[in-house]
Amino acid sequence: MKILLVLLLFISVSHFAKSQLSDNGFTMECEFEGLPDNTKVFLKTQNSDTIARTTSNGSKFTFQGKLSSNGEFHFIHFDHNVFNKGTLAIFVKNQHLKIKGTIGKREVTVLGIPEQTEYDSVMKEERDHLSVFNQHLRKVDEFVQTIQFDSLTNEPIKVSDKVILDSIKTLTVKLMVDRDNEIKKWISAHPNSLLTPYIMEKTLRIENLSFLDSMYNALSTEAQNSYYGKRMKKELKYAGTYLKIELGEIFPNIPIIDSSGNATNIHEVIKGNKLTLIDCWASWCKPCRAQLPLLKEVYSKFKKDGFNILAISSDRSEIAWKKAVVEDKSSWNHFIESKENPFSKMCSIEGIPSFILLDKDGKLLAFDAGMSMIGRLGKPIQGENLPTAVENALKKQSKQ
User: Which of 150, 287, 360, 370 is the most exposed, fewest CB within 10 Å of its CB?
Assistant: First the structure.
């Protein structure tokens, strides 16, 4: 549930504190009790990219560098022989800050970041709210166990039970809405904080795009240009596309890249075909490549009837993508998503394989994603459902 997601988000984050920004990058003075002399130490991003490394002098060491986009969570990692886990997340800005910790413990104290107090306050509120919410859910579960449900309607047999259950549902929604409103008030009260766009991205539902746009526009220029501010801006851009994806409507004309590096778009590629299956995959995705025999079978059977497959890879490596295409010996159209307008992001596809079925005009017939904000639209078309779905869609197209 959204409330649990919010809590897990904040519990994973470390402590922050006060200081001034610097155009000259960041300096992190660190001291860890129990740290052996001459230990290799690394500063890593959430994507595990190492942006700085050094060697300890006794229990102390210093990181220096410059963030191209200010305000991002990082982790300190040590030589595995010393401590095989990284610290909890540290909010780093281009300024001077001090870190204190103890080898064997992931928690650290951060001095020099104003977001420290903000984070502590929000985290405490989340813990308090989750405590109340969990107590409520336990009571709900206890009550549901005592109810007899109608096997056909799945409604309580007793009218009195139905009344109580309806009131419980109302209270559950109220608890969630109340916390939403508290988060929104916090965001409105902290337009200058570089932490604010991070909280927006992780806690607010994207469906209300106009509301999020207005909240984003109310942020300071510095917050908008921060690491998470830029990421939030991209998310709003993606949402502006995927929230328009609807069954029976023209699918967005998203740009894609061919094997020669040339840009084209979805509408251009599907021209001349009665039916197009968009296969969202990647070279590293074993379930994706396991579907190849089925895709080849369906393609071979219905190609003569105007069926085509448009495979779009979300690989980061073009070399890995091209190698997989050659290995798989598939003869349909192959493209990779654009870095500026990634197909998966523009369609809110968070899990692959994912299939999308379009008619000759580019209208959406089915959207069957592994994970997506959109959910499934139309009938399932993955696995054993694909041959029948393609056959039925082609028959319908022929009658039009």
Answer: 150
In this structure, is the dihedral angle defined by the CA atoms of residues 211, 376, 242 and 251, taken in order, positive or negative? negative
pLDDT digits (tens, 9 = 90+) for 144-177: 788 777 666 667 777 777 778 788 888 888 888 8
- Answer whether 156's CB lies under 8 Å from 162's CB: yes
Q: What is the CATH number of domain 2-115?
A: 2.60.40.10
Measured between alpha carbons, how far is 93 from 113 in angstroms, rounded to an integer?
A: 8
DSSP E strands, 58-155: 60-65, 72-78, 90-92, 96-102, 108-111
pTM for the full model?
0.72
pLDDT of residue 19: 39
**Distance, CA of 2 to CA of 205 (rounded, Å):** 9
184 by DSSP, 3-state: which? helix
Sequence letter at residue 355: F
Q: How far apart are the first and last CA of the chain?
A: 43
Give the CATH number of domain 255-399: 3.40.30.10
State how far the Cα of 322 lies from the Cα of 342, in Å rounded to an integer.
18
Q: What count of Cα atoms within 13 Å lies in the side-chain half-sphere of residue 101?
A: 26
User: Token match 């336990």: residue?
Assistant: 138
> Distance between CA atoms of 379 and 232, rounded to whole angstroms?
32
